[in-house]
Design goal:
The protein is of the alpha/beta class. The protein is built from five helices and eleven strands. The two termini are 24 Å apart.
Length: 214
């Protein structure tokens, strides 16, 4: 079994991106799952094209894209990507789309195929703050999530599960950001590892365990 997991390079004036730093800390194998790590640029379109090429090259069972969401308190597992790109700031190549569709022939939205509530449940059970998020924003993170799910749909890759995880700042990013939440890099990496295990342990999106649906 193989999981392809991506992280972005730094953007928005930051010198580091906790998404990629956490991805790098993951082991090469988690149980019997091979972990393939790819860095993508914080650039509209280019990030998606590099992801598509990686999917074709790796032929993964699961694709997880990870991004930074500064200001969030926990690991946020995204439910949906929407067909809009609207840049609060320019991307790393200076492009700043305003109210633009990502793909003209795409659906208005695509939902993740990851067992998001099970992933949150398993992270929380290990003492890691985590939640389901219903908005991936309209910047490059949402662009990549939507593009991933669009690509899997258009290519008929119904056996490949895909989704997106947002992670908080790490401590060194908030030294000059008063009252801004953060999480240690080791905890973020542990959360991602737990999430990967959870995906392969839960074969359907809704699982009943102990009377609780998640």
């Amino acid at each position: 079994m193989k999981v392809l997991i991506t992280g972005f390079d730094p953007f928005g004036g930051e010198k580091i991106n906790p998404a990629w730093e956490a991805v790098k800390k993951l082991p090469e194998k988690i149980d019997d799952i091979e972990v393939i790590k790819v860095q993508v640029p914080t650039v509209f379109k280019k990030s998606a094209n590099e992801l598509f090429a990686a999917i074709d090259r790796v032929n993964p069972d699961v694709v997880i894209c990870v991004g930074q969401a500064g200001g969030r308190f926990d690991i946020s597992i995204e439910r949906v990507g929407i067909n809009i790109e609207d840049g609060r700031i320019p991307d790393n190549e200076g492009y700043q789309p305003i109210d633009t569709k990502i793909f003209e022939d795409g659906e208005n939205a695509y939902f993740t195929s990851l067992p998001i509530k099970a992933m949150v449940h398993d992270m929380q059970n290990e003492g890691i703050p985590a939640s389901v998020s219903n908005t991936a924003g309209t910047y490059v993170c949402n662009h990549l999530m939507y593009s991933l799910l669009y690509y899997l749909d258009k290519k008929g890759l119904t056996n490949v599960r895909g989704g997106f995880i947002h992670v908080p700042f790490i401590p060194e990013q908030v030294i000059d950001k008063k009252n801004t939440p953060y999480m240690s890099l080791d905890v973020i990496a542990k959360g991602l590892e737990i999430g990967i295990k959870s995906i392969f342990n839960h074969k359907v999106d809704k699982t009943i365990t102990g009377g609780k649906e998640f």
